[in-house]
Amino acid sequence: MSKTAVTTLTLLGALAIGAGIYAANYQHRPAASSKPSGQTLTVYTAGPKPLSDKIVSGFEDQTGIKVKIFDGTTGKILSKLKAENQNPQADVLVLASMAAGVDLQSQGKLLTYDAKGVAKLNPRFKDPNHQLFNYSASAVGITYRKQAGLPVPEDWDDLNQSAYRNAVTIPDPKSSGSSLDFINVYQQKHGTTLFKKLKQNGADIGGANKEVLDAVVTGQKKAVLGGVDYMSISAIKKGEKIGFSYPDSGTLVNPRPAMILKSSEHQKAAKQFIDYLLSNKVQAQIKAKYLIPGTAQKLVNPLNNDTINAYQVDWSTANQTLTKNLSRFNQVLTHA
Amino acid sequence: MRKRHVQTRLAAPLTILLAILIAGPLVALLSQTLFGSRPSALWQQLIAPATLTSLRHSLLLGAGTIIGTTVIATPLAWIMTHTRLRAYRWLHWLLLVPFMTPPYINAMGWIYFFQPHGLVQQLLPRADLTFKWLFSPFGMILIMSLHLYPVAYLLLKTALTQFNQRWLDAATVHGVPFKRQLSKIMLPILLVPYLAVWVLVFTKTLAEFGTPATFGRNIHFDVLTTTIQRDLSQWPLAFKNGVLTGSVLLVIALSAWLIQQRFLAHPVVQLTANQAPILYWRHGVTGWAGGFTALLLSAAVGIPYVSIITQSLFKQRSAGIAAGNWTFSHYLELLRFDSPAFHALITTFGLAIAISILNLVLAVLISAGSLSQRLPRWISQTLKTLGALPLAIPNVVLALSLMILFSQWLAFTKLYGSLLVLMIADITLFLPTSVQYITTALQELDQSLVASARVFEANPWRILTKIILPILAPALTNSFAMAFIATSRELVVALLLLPSGMTTISSFIFQSFEQGDASQGMALAVVTVAITFVIIQLTGQLLTKESTPRQA
Amino acid sequence: MVAIQLTRLSKHYQEQVVIPALDLTIPDRQITALIGPSGSGKSTILNMIAGLTVPSSGQILFDDHPVFDQQRGTSMPPAKRHLAMVFQDFALWPHMTVAGNVSFALAPKLSKSELTHRVDWALSQVGLTDLRDRYPRELSGGQQQRVALARAIAVKPKLILFDEALSALDPQLRASLQIEISRLIHQNQLTALFVTHDRQEALRIADHVVLIRDGRVVQAGSPTTLYQRPVNAFAAKFFGPLNQLDGHTAIRPEHVHLATHHPEQPKTHGQVQSSTFLGDHFDNLIDVADQQWHVSSASALPAGPVTLSFDPQYLIHY
User: Fold this and answer.
1) Which residues numbered 84-113 in A keep a CB inside 8 Å of some CB on B?
2) Nearest-CA residue of chain A relative to B546?
3) Chains adjacent to C (≥3 CB pairs closer than 8 angstroms)
4) Which of B142, B141, B153 is nearest to B97 (CA)?
5) DSSP single-letter state for residue B131
6) With an 8 Å Cβ cutoff, is B462 touching chain C?
7) B518 and A205: CB-CB below 8 Å?
8) Which pLDDT tens digit goes with each residue over A263-300?
9) CA–CA separation, B279 vs B276, rounded Å?
10) Is B467 touching C (CB cutoff 8 A)?
11) Keywords, A to Z (chain C) (predicted)?
């Protein structure tokens, strides 16, 4: 190859990449240009990414408002919020932890909005202050490996059997908002006995929800205690050899709150976004991803339509016990 | 005379701006630590068990990795200088692959290979092998050593090539026994390069985030870097603790760097190549060397790559290795133009190109400024320091410092949360490598070559484009390629500073383990490494093309 | 056809004065050698004439045209001074072929056919036509220096500057290139300025020699003048070994013989200390009064007393 050829190829390559960037940034949103508004809404979301992508592109098509999203765990979103304290960037937050939402609410950071769609919500998901919009929810339960000789766990205590020795993992409450809420609410109701027994049976704290699910999928662990339902169920629907059960004695159904920050400079668009979240279209999309729609009047297991035995939770009390229960949990699980 | 004033007037503001951007964040971090809370509270935090544990772990990991890389790189450097294997250029490149592999991918590969129901157990189901011993601090040191040995290997290889065989010949002639030659001649002379290697490996291990964040999390082995990242991004937040830990890490890394600078400044023995090292031709030696190298490569390259590639090809990851469980769909998914992974790919390469170009421009200015005799001494000295300093700053600390600087001190600029902060971080991080390349090239650029051009050619533009740029081209291409590769895989800075709505390759892969589709993350990892390899090969070819003459 | 005139030319770096205030005229169509010990400032003078170093004060005239004048603020860039230069380390551009190096400066000025013609001419002058497509690193040192020479004459300069141009070559090659350069300069009626620290080279190649020390001219004149009529002890010793008669009188070793050969000349007595075989002659170390003399002879001299004679017309007085 001559020098000219190499130069030409390099230039062509650079051009192709440049064109790709252009295309990637502008081409996939042609519909937005039909209703130009010049507004950009910034949304921080802890939702499952494919769902939030779908919701956002639907919203953009419908309203012509451009949306910038930041995907992260609840922890990452709150951290980003704190770092941006002096120069707030986000307009709307969608979190996976109700406790975190209540925490922000108690700090007075949220905007009150009388959304029309709220009327349709399941009563247990309604916020009397009209600040937290629980457009969807997820339950936690037990994910287990389907393999010969392994009993199917139906309640939390089943994971204390010797078949599950050294093979149970719990999502790290520091990475998973739903896990945090679960260990808090569970201890409120039943104390630490379960966790002590689990520790004796060799259970340990894993990573985020996806990571612990992965540990079971690849066989590193045999069960996850307190993992979110929709992730496991979609893996099951994809054909992975795992199972998921909602414990008979009851479990936490954790609302996933959306909220508008008071500091938002795009409140009108933000309100439109909340309305969109509560719309029938989005509620159907939520159901298709095996999450519990906020408008669902009965909470059922997507695998067999059995009713889920859900805890009744007072979230403001839960917010107060959070730190104490978290450190108790860490103490039980990390120290022998 | 007037010309000189103009130069100074241009250089001084640039130097000050660079100082603010490179040293400013560190000042912000340290003062935030010192003045952010009362001294007694600071001390309490410092001796808190969690801080001390991660500090202990970091130091243990650093010390262990020093031993590990030394044990691996010493025979390897000897093999690649003294045996027949040294003739194979491709082997040299292959040996560098572990360092080019992003560490978090490397570590994931190891986990998938040895975990219960991992690749080994699937391939040998009856062997009843458990690898508990591997999932321990020892395993972590092993993985880190297998990732970092190329750094040690490169330095030791140079040292061995430059080791004058005559020094040993003289000893042999004068009847000094081999043992004494080893202890009294070889070791004292090679101590300097070894110390340099150890400091470098220690600093790199201390700053490493990817391996502790994946493998370390698996075995609950917190180090300073992961503690900082967790304190800053997991709820409930421990911002103050993260800042303190960041300062601790910075102080250790800076001390190690200062020690290294001392070594570089005063070489006890000048090593110069005046003779090719003697070659051991015997078949036994070659066989032994080949065996060692093959074993090393299969551990350092084979294990992670086999495991990542198989993971990226599984239909059902719970089914494992089974007929009909293979698919290319994760790769095809990447080719869809609207897939998030493809977006991440485009974003990353776009960013990497922009950052590498800016990095190159700054590196040229810094190198030229630090070498210039015409600028005031304080400017050239400052530039020299600024060009080398980022080597001592662990990525996570730089990201944290920039966070503090831009979210608190410079909050009025409203720049926090924008791409600019991320770009500043990446440019700063990879500056030292480019500055090193370009400074060396500028030093080697014979002044008489430029002088002769000025005598024969009046047009400065033509001198620049036809003489200076072509001669500097290899160094420029090299530093561009290195910055490009480093930027495109940088993880922790992206995790902490990436603005909303953007994903890079590394953050995509990392998040795919946390929240997304792990198979797709693996597929993207394979594609990224392949692209990296192609870029290196292309650069290499471009360079050899330029330096080998065309025969008429 | 360029005579160079330096008037009150000075150069200092910060506090350090390299050239105090130099007045010097370099004649045209001749080879002038600028010679001096290392650090004497000869290369600085050459670089100032080339325009590579900007003088601190003074004036440089090429044929009465100022190329540099500190008071008037004139300073022509090197390439506008119509000169060429040959460097010690050749300074061939490593990424260009031989032809590329020779044609680089001309390419924007000449048409393609003129260029080919000119490059061919220049290369034929140094006998390198066959190597036109080679790269510098494929050539020997001597070949590289010939390319540098071709590059210099190709631009058809009036003045060529040589900066220690032959120092990197071995003695035999150096001698043959000295002859070649001398022929090229005179044949093309060029002016050449040759900086060197090698006195043999200066004497052999130059029509005019300027001896420099500490940035000042010690003596200027023809090679024979400098060799035979040095103005002071420094100049006398610089150009070759001396046999001292007293503090101000000396004679070169080649004019001293054994008294038996030249009975008519003045005589002196000495003690032979040693006799060293040097191939074509023996070099004898002889104590004469309180001085040590070198005397050559066809055969080895036995240690002991000896009588020497010398030609008085070659006595050097300073």
Assistant:
1) 84-87, 89-90, 97, 100
2) A3
3) B
4) B153
5) -
6) yes
7) no
8) 999 999 999 999 999 999 999 999 999 999 999 988 99
9) 9
10) yes
11) ATP-binding, Cell inner membrane, Cell membrane, Ion transport, Iron, Iron transport, Membrane, Nucleotide-binding, Translocase, Transport
- Please judge whether A87 and B411 are an interchain contact, meaning their C-beta atoms are less than 8 angstroms apart: yes
Q: Please list the ranges in chain B whose pLDDT falls under 50.
A: 1, 548-552
- Cα-based torsion angle of the residue sequence A58, A63, A66, A68 in order, rounded to the nearest 10 degrees: -50
Task: Decide if C88 and B448 are in contact by the 8 Å CB cutoff.
Answer: yes
Please tell me whether residue B341 adopts helix, strand or coil conformation.
Answer: helix
Structural domains of chain A, ranges and CATH numbers in brackets = 9-137+255-305 (3.40.190.10), 138-252+318-335 (3.40.190.10)
Closest by CA position to A210, among listed A332, A52, A46, A100: A46
DSSP-derived secondary structure letter, B299: I
Q: What is the separation of C-alpha A125 from the centre of its chain, rounded to a whole number of angstroms?
A: 16
C-alpha to C-alpha distance for A181 and A129, rounded to whole angstroms:
21
Contact A87 B511 (CB under 8 A): no
**Would you call C112 an interface residue with chain B, using a CB distance cutoff of 8 Å?**
no
Q: Which of C221, C177, C202, C201 is closest to C34 using CA atoms?
A: C202
Interface test with B, best of A56, A79, A213, A232 (most B CBs within 10 A): A79
Q: Chain A closest CA to B318's CA: distance in Å?
A: 5
- pLDDT for C80: 85
* Domains in chain B, CATH or no CATH each: 1-47+328-547 (1.10.3720.10), 51-326 (1.10.3720.10)
Mean pLDDT of all residues in C266-282: 88
| Cross-chain residue pair B471–C94, CB shorter than 8 Å | yes
Closest CA relative to residue B330, chosen from B354, B352, B310: B310
pLDDT band per the 50, 70, 90 thresholds, residue A27: very low
Longest dimension (CA), chain B: 83
